[in-house]
Design brief:
homodimer, 393 residues, alpha/beta, Aspartate Aminotransferase, domain 1, Aspartate Aminotransferase, domain 2, 2 domains
Chain lengths: 393, 393
């Protein structure tokens, strides 16, 4: 191993290695359809959107799929369609968009701590957070790791709560060898550039409930059922045909890319597992993750550097990494309020302070993964020297 | 003239003539950039969005332009960024999305009647609707017809109200020979497929206020200022690069297309003006409309058929038309509420019941316009026969 850049060596990567890179089809595979759409003038929410809905319904084995402009819009419309009131149980260890979708619907988040090992909402802390005002649970499959859907649904049933799964990260994940669809009132998946299946911008709301599917179909078009007499307050959340064409082609290429994501995650695990103080997200029992992100937890005492220091070491080598999710939602200024109880989020605080996501995208090369591993190992070997550098700054 | 289809003749158009058709660049003019974006992986909110923002700022002669996913998202974020509370004055004669953007921000619409001739919010009725709870005015340039910006701004100043211009229809319209930008806190334009300038899906928020521009820039990315510590509850309202590239090329072609739209509107006016009972939208003084839509008002007594009947006559000839805006917002079920006063909307009710928008798009051919004119004239000549047909149904 060469000298670490933070210690005066040359960066291991000449060009910046991104944390994510969109999986797109070769342009020649989509250009004819792009051209067709331009000629026909049917550029948004038309036949290719319909076709994507059919193909995804088939892939996820679910009755109804409604394409939307993005996952956030899909969640906002789902909550609206369900006419929820009061409080909704969500994890705080999630991307803040989860909570925003509640806020746009005047719903108050009840934050539940995450599990220390799976990073997902901790099902054993869930019941105690339910009160008279609670109307729903919105679990999130963090980084693609399926939550314990059956246990959550059991609790929801017991208290007559709706379940909306924020499946932004989870296209391609499986539970009991099935896709993560049809467990809640809806699941909403993201097809944005950093996700396993990419449309460009886009999302899908999936459900087995016809009424909800119809409401989302209206809702993405302002709530207009077709006669310009709105039945709900909707959004413009239409998906463009170019994005649908992109996702359709990507869906064909998806099995290969999903396999590649898992391969990279496994490579990381086997390559880093023997480094003291580095641990990984535990995938739930009977589950398989699409690895939207690959995260490590850094224990400073055993590794010798803290999360922020390791991030800087990587940065100097031109390796991007992300403190994700930091800060957690309950520490975001806009969610601090006397109405939102914040106690009992110890795991969330811990994970948020110790987590680092590493580059993962289907096009990654083995030597890139190896180099990242080398840098982390080398950092562990040189913690005193590195700490000296940080002290001098 | 051949026999009208409603009277048993053949439709004048073999293929359905749409009400609108998107103005797109030739595919060959954009495909290289589409390909470049696919190769670079920078497919959303990147350099072409930045470039479009600069070009539009220049075109509209305004300091800041922020591209968003669509006009509705732009308005929702603008209202959020301005932290408005209470009531906002809006026309009821508008597309319902205007009111929806208030609803998503927990703002109550105060509907003000429109002007009988211009269809725009009636400035003389405006002051009496202002009360202690009123925080803003959101006028709409209906069909591209500029509202009386100076008079509205004067009233706003007098009562310390913010003004947000819903300029969804108005890209290309001018007032006092200048673009409709910089009059309010913001103007929000739509670049959706039916608009004079098309991105595919898209909108732009324009302002001379740096703080608001920064808030919208955050807001379109969930409220994230870049450090993942949200400063506001935002949306995903990013514009894709494909849409920005499309709009950039369309902007080059825009002067010609705008001229064509005006030419078509003028053609309609000179061709239909002598038909009894047909009148047109009066364009405001010192103003020029981009004619996002071309509307006629049908006076049944003088024309011989009512609006719905004429729409059916056109339909049978394969000519699309649109009852736009019908029903007006205050008659939509979701906006009927004891908190929203609905009196004094006589002009809105009248226009909404008598208006019909006719096909208008830059690619329209003279013979198509002539045929539409012929059908309307012929309908006027045969009102008794046509009424008989309707009676028999």
């Amino acid at each position: 191993m060469k000298k670490l850049a933070i210690l005066g060596g040359k960066p291991i990567f000449k060009n910046y290695l991104p944390i994510a890179f969109p999986s797109l089809p070769p342009f020649k595979e989509v250009e004819d359809k792009f051209k067709e759409v331009f000629l026909s003038g049917m550029i948004t929410n038309a036949k290719y959107v319909r076709s994507l809905e059919e193909k995804i319904a088939n892939y996820l084995n679910v009755k109804y799929v409604v394409c939307v402009a993005n996952c956030t819009s899909g969640l906002i419309l789902s909550l609206k369609a369900l006419k929820l009131k009061g409080k909704v149980i969500v994890p705080s260890f999630t991307f803040f968009a989860t909570a925003h979708t509640l806020s746009w619907n005047n719903l108050t988040p009840t934050f539940v701590d995450c599990h220390r090992e799976t990073f997902n909402i901790n099902v054993s802390f869930l019941e105690e957070k339910i009160d008279q005002e609670t109307s729903a649970i919105m679990p999130v499959h963090i980084f693609g790791n399926p939550v314990l859907v059956e246990e959550i649904n059991k609790i929801a049933q017991k208290y007559s709560l709706k379940v909306i799964y924020d499946a932004a990260h989870a296209f391609g994940s499986r539970y009991n060898n099935s896709p993560l669809a049809g467990y809640g009132e809806v699941e909403v998946f993201s097809l944005s550039p950093t996700k396993p299946l990419v449309a460009g911008e886009g999302g899908v709301v999936v459900t087995n409930n016809k009424e909800i599917a119809e409401a989302i179909t209206m809702g993405r078009d302002y709530g207009n059922p077709g006669d310009y007499h709105c039945k709900m307050v909707g959004l413009n959340a239409r998906m463009t045909e170019v994005n649908a064409i992109t996702a359709l082609k990507n869906l064909e290429l998806f099995p290969e890319r999903l396999a590649k994501r898992k391969e990279i995650a496994n490579f990381y695990i086997s390559n880093l597992k023997d480094i003291p103080g580095i641990s990984f997200q535990k995938i739930e029992v009977n589950a398989s993750s699409c690895y939207k992100d690959f995260a490590i937890i850094i224990d400073e005492e055993r590794f010798g550097l803290n999360r922020d220091e390791l991030a800087l070491v990587l940065e100097r080598e031109n390796i991007s990494s992300r403190k994700y999710f930091f800060p957690p939602v309950h520490k975001q200024e806009i969610y601090k309020s006397k109405d939102i109880p914040l106690e009992g989020l110890e795991n969330t605080n811990f994970i948020s302070d110790h987590i680092l996501c590493l580059p993962l995208f289907a096009q990654m090369k083995e030597e890139e993964m190896l180099s990242i591993g080398e840098v982390i190992k080398e950092a562990h070997q040189n913690t005193s020297l590195i700490k000296e550098v940080f002290k001098e700054r």
